[in-house]
Design goal:
This protein has a single domain, classed as Molybdopterin biosynthesis MoaE subunit (Aldehyde Oxidoreductase, domain 3, Alpha-Beta Complex). It has four helices and nine strands; from the N terminus they run βαβββαβββαββα.
C-alpha cells in the first residue's frame, strides 16, 4: 500500500505496475479527471489543496480498512495538488486482488471514503473568470452552508 500527494502528472502505468503481482487475477485503475462543467457552469480548471499530513494519514487509514475488508493490500493512491486543467487526472487509485469482485469493491470503497473523509479541497475556475470552493461530494460549499443554516436542502 502506498499513498502520494503529487504536484506532477500521475503516471498511471507506474501505479498499475506497482500493484500487479503473480497472485493477483484482477487489477483495477480508477482515474478521476477534471471535467469542463459543474452544475451548469463551464469550468476551465481546478485548484487542489490539502492539509497534507492529515490527508496522507487518512488515506493510509482508508487503505488499511480496504485491505482488511476486501483481502488485498495491493492498493496505491495518487492525488494531484495544484492547478489542473480540464481532462487532467486529479486522482488515481490502483488496486489488485486475487479476484475481480474484491478489486472492484476495494476500489469503490477507497474513492468513496476519500471523497467523504480526506481533507483535500478544490476551487473551481469558471469561464467567466470567477472561482468557487466546492465540497468533495461535488456541491458548492457556499450552497451547502446556506442550506444547512436555512434548515432545508
Amino acid at each position: 500500500m502506498r499513498v502520494a500527494l503529487v504536484t506532477q502528472p500521475i503516471d498511471l502505468a507506474a501505479l498499475v505496475a506497482e500493484v500487479v503481482h503473480p497472485g493477483t487475477g484482477a487489477t483495477t485503475l480508477f482515474v478521476g479527471t477534471v471535467r469542463d462543467q459543474h452544475e451548469g457552469r463551464a469550468v476551465t480548471g481546478i485548484d487542489y489543496e490539502a492539509y497534507e499530513p492529515m490527508a496522507i494519514r487518512e488515506c493510509e487509514t482508508i487503505c488499511a480498512e480496504a485491505a482488511e475488508r476486501f483481502g488485498t493490500d495491493r492498493i496505491v493512491i495518487a492525488h494531484r495538488l495544484g492547478t489542473l486543467g480540464v481532462t487532467e487526472a486529479s486522482i488515481a487509485i490502483a488496486v489488485a486482488a486475487p479476484r475481480r469482485v474484491a478489486a472492484l469493491d476495494a476500489q469503490r470503497y477507497v474513492i468513496e471514503a476519500i471523497k467523504a473523509r480526506v481533507p483535500i479541497f478544490k476551487r473551481e475556475h469558471y469561464v467567466d473568470g470567477t472561482r468557487a470552493w466546492v465540497d468533495n461530494r461535488g456541491g458548492s460549499v457556499a450552497a451547502a452552508a446556506s442550506a444547512s443554516v436555512g434548515g432545508s436542502a
